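Let's sit down with a protein and look at its sequence and fold side by side. Please make up or recall a protein chain and show it to me in full. Label the sequence line and the structure token line clearly, so we can match residues to local backbone shapes. Go ahead whenever you are ready, and we will take it from there.
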Amino acid sequence: MKDIGFKFCVVLVLAALTTISCKKEDQMAIDRDLINNFILEHNFDAQSTESGLYYVIDEPGSSEHPTIQDVVTVSYVGIFLDGGIFDNGIDITFPLTNVIRGWQEGIPLFGKGGKGWLILPSHLAYGNTLKPGIPPNSCLAFQIELKDF
């Protein structure tokens, strides 16, 4: 009897993991479609990274680029892919280690003084977590200017 209970638990855990995995893959496909539509709407010449981050470098800035260990100063506007603004900041300074994964990966693509866009799939933003003013599984776009680091 204990053997049947153990096997049932193993099957239940495997089923749950499969469901979670499928949902993550489904969300990634949804995000990719939303981001591709956003890029087409804005006529961006966007590049992408292996993680799914899309970026547009309007002005590359200097040859100096920050690393994840740097403290950066940026000005930015954060928008939903439907165009609604959810956040902005002018000359905001913070350690790059303290921000969402998409910024950790994307900000170092700019040199000092660089400007452009980061377009994040939900897993590089806040994932399926509800944040004030940002629904779960939101793809986000940021118009960025890297002022200093």
